[in-house]
Amino acid sequence: MIVQASMKVPRFAGEGRIEWLTREVPEPGPGQLLMRIEANALCGSDRGQFYGGSGVTPGHEAVGVVAAAGPDTASAVGTRGVIYAKDYCGTCRYCRMNMTSQCTERSSVIGFSEHGGYDPYILIAERMLFPIDDAIPAAEATLLLDIMGTGSRAVKRAGMLHPDIRTVLVSGAGPIGLGLLAMAKLLLGEEVPVAVTDFVPYRLELVKRLNGIPILLSETSLEEGLAASGMRGVDVVMDASGKESARRAGLAALNPGGVLVCVGHGEGLSFRAAEELINVEKAVIGSDYFDYGDLEQNMKLFHAHRSYLSQLITHRFPPDRLQEAYRLFFESGQTGKVIIEHGSA
């Protein structure tokens, strides 16, 4: 594969401005791959970089092709794959517990500590690549990462504490909330009702498409919305909003023995331990990024439910419209998952 010597890359200047500059294409060292990026999905965790500026190129939901391989690697040039955002060692206690996101020996993360998927080419450790079929479109392959990976992780962590999940509530219908809805349906069963709250009608239309139960909080309360859907309470709440008010409302809506899973970053949560947790045996847990090993199972789910999952993608942009894409994503409330698609080399 022919690799150009330089590339046009975005600089996140802050205050919602993206400038463009030229940088040399890096060369892979031992154990590294040079990836030509095909697509990268926007994420809410990029907000601070878009508005506050960033010294590295963001983008941590990337799909690409091996353009060059360094010494001590086995991946062939031309291999396509999704890129697990966090480097990991594979041997520490947490990696052996299938918690590669909590690895204690590696700390680099593409898009945050290292240049990410809005650059045309990036370097990664070979172990971060998960190969995929050439027939899978790059934009759809991004769903294997934060949508399916983060979503499935939260559902599975809830299941570790609750053996009989019959009802679910998702707080917030942004892309992560929609991913939580989709993975709850795929992992728990279509018959399990999943209610989703938001203040934006557009997002709740996407909830309907994914067979969720929309609750528009500008028109009804959570309690009224659940009652209208035939739910007196729920077994699991997954919060994607990051808002303390949503977490507190979700905690109150839990049945005895229920689990609140905090997924969205943002605000905190205070509670009365005896009355709200101990006496009713409720649990509050966090769920972050997923384990590299989860990708194999999620790939099987993707193949079985591709048309269902692809509904989460609502907008696609070329790299030179990156600033426009971010403004639409953060300021309109009128998107699902937004993808930046790089052209062919």
TrEMBL record:
Keyword Oxidoreductase (UniProt): yes
Top-level taxon in the UniProt lineage: Bacteria
InterPro entries: ADH-like_C (IPR013149), ADH-like_N (IPR013154), ER (IPR020843), GroES-like_sf (IPR011032), NAD(P)-bd_dom_sf (IPR036291), Zn_alcohol_dh (IPR050129)
The keyword Metal-binding appears for this protein: yes
Domain Enoyl reductase (ER): 14-340
Database matches in SMART domains: PKS_ER
Keywords recorded for this protein, A-Z: Metal-binding, Oxidoreductase, Zinc
Gene Ontology MF, one: metal ion binding
PANTHER family found in the cross-reference section: L-THREONINE 3-DEHYDROGENASE
Protein name: Alcohol dehydrogenase catalytic domain-containing protein
Organism this protein belongs to: Paenibacillus lycopersici
